[in-house]
Write a structure and sequence with these properties.
Elements lengths: L1 H15 L1 E5 L12 E8 L8 E4 L2 E7 L4 H12 L6 E15 L8 E14 L2 E14 L7 H20 L9 E3 L6 H9 L1 H4 L6 E3 L2 H5 L7 E5 L5 E6 L2 E3 L6 E4 L2 E6 L2 E7 L4 E6 H4 E3 L5 E3 L5 H6 L14 E2 L3 E2 L4 E6 L6 E2 L3
Parallel strand pairs: 1-4, 2-5
Antiparallel strand pairs: 3-4, 5-6, 6-7, 7-8, 9-13, 10-11, 11-12, 13-14, 14-15, 15-16, 16-21, 17-18, 19-20, 21-22
Length: 346
């Protein structure tokens, strides 16, 4: 009887479960005609995206076609007008949706974990051109349908990441042999991540993440502090310039990163560098409107994060493109070892 009851209960739950389709609503056209081909690699260990709660129902998120590689490559060919010389490679490494009860929260939040990387293939050499590794948060209390919200954000992220990759910045030192593309992260970080691999950080001002990563401070910049020890000025060649031109500075071997709410200490563990902060602090709302974004959101990653709060729907007020709900939840926010972008894990 117990087995019969369990089978009945399971069949009832499966019958009640609904599906939200992730639709690629935007075209994948390269307006400048620079892209010749788009190759999509689906490296997800588990192709099931997951199930979340939505108004007392369980909703499974899926693509219209389980063959995501075929879906995206076919869509590109349909939208492509021919020409171009760039061969772009997209790799989806992770995509999961789930409900998570965070510490000191009275109800679970619907979330989507996404990891995407982009490469350009030139003369059988692959160069990393960007990576997005993040958790998008949906607040079920302020969003009518979390499943619809996350499906739209996943769709937007995929299409915008692909389109941003059409016009890449290529770092020559980010070369990956074709045989190593599936383990590109380990390959590029093994010798090249000097900031992490060296025991002591070099003192000085770093104007971008790559200079910090390579431990090459800009010696024509220096900081000035007030009597309380607070950094108040950035000087370049004898002239005061905006503090926003500084990614971080290192003093007595300790690094401090500029954020919209001040300088946070960059800490280090066996996983990498991180700061203890929140989305609210790293994407602070400006008094003049819009959002002040931390210095890590540049390049390809910056193209995925809107410079203004998404006000397209009252239900989604307070959401930012690329990260979702601007939560006050504090946690370790890691700095991507290759791009310097924020990696939110909560």
């Amino acid at each position: 009887m117990k087995k019969l009851f369990f089978c009945f209960l399971l069949s009832s739950l499966l019958a009640a479960q609904k599906t939200e389709i992730i639709k690629l609503k935007e075209n994948l056209r390269d307006k400048k005609g620079l892209t010749r081909s788009l190759t999509f690699i689906d490296n997800r260990p588990d192709k099931n995206i997951g199930v979340i709660s939505d108004n007392h129902e369980t909703i499974e998120l899926k693509f219209a076609d389980d063959n995501l590689k075929g879906l995206i490559e076919t869509r590109f060919l349909e939208d492509h007008k021919g020409g171009g010389a760039n061969d772009i490679v997209m790799m989806l490494e992770e995509l999961k949706v789930y409900d998570e009860q965070d510490d000191n929260r009275s109800f679970p939040y619907a979330k989507a974990k996404i990891k995407l990387s982009g490469f350009i293939n030139r003369n059988d050499r692959y160069y990393l051109i960007g990576r997005y590794d993040n958790v998008i948060v949906c607040n079920p209390k302020t969003t009518a349908h979390p499943s619809t919200f996350l499906a739209e954000k996943i769709s937007d992220l995929l299409t915008q990441f692909i389109k941003a990759s059409y016009y890449p910045y290529i770092a020559s030192n980010y070369f990956i042999p074709e045989s190593e593309i599936n383990r590109y992260n380990e390959y590029l970080n093994k010798e090249g991540y000097k900031a992490f691999n060296n025991q002591v950080l070099k003192d000085g001002v770093y104007t971008d993440f790559q200079s910090f990563r390579n431990q090459q401070p800009s010696f024509d910049y220096f900081i000035k502090k007030n009597k309380k020890g607070k950094v108040t000025q950035l000087i370049h060649q004898g002239q005061q310039v905006s503090l926003s031109k500084m990614y971080c500075y290192v003093e007595n071997g300790k690094a401090y990163k500029l954020t919209p709410v001040g300088f946070d200490e960059i800490q280090k563990d066996n996983r990498g560098f991180f700061i203890y902060s929140s989305r609210t602090n790293l994407f602070a709302e400006a008094k003049t409107g819009g959002v002040l974004i931390g210095a890590a959101a540049g390049g390809l990653v910056g193209a995925l994060i809107g410079a203004a709060i998404d006000s397209s729907s009252n239900n989604n007020a307070g959401a930012i493109n690329g990260i979702g709900f601007r939560s006050t939840m504090e946690s370790n926010v890691y700095l991507d070892s290759l791009t310097g972008a924020y990696i939110f894990e909560k």
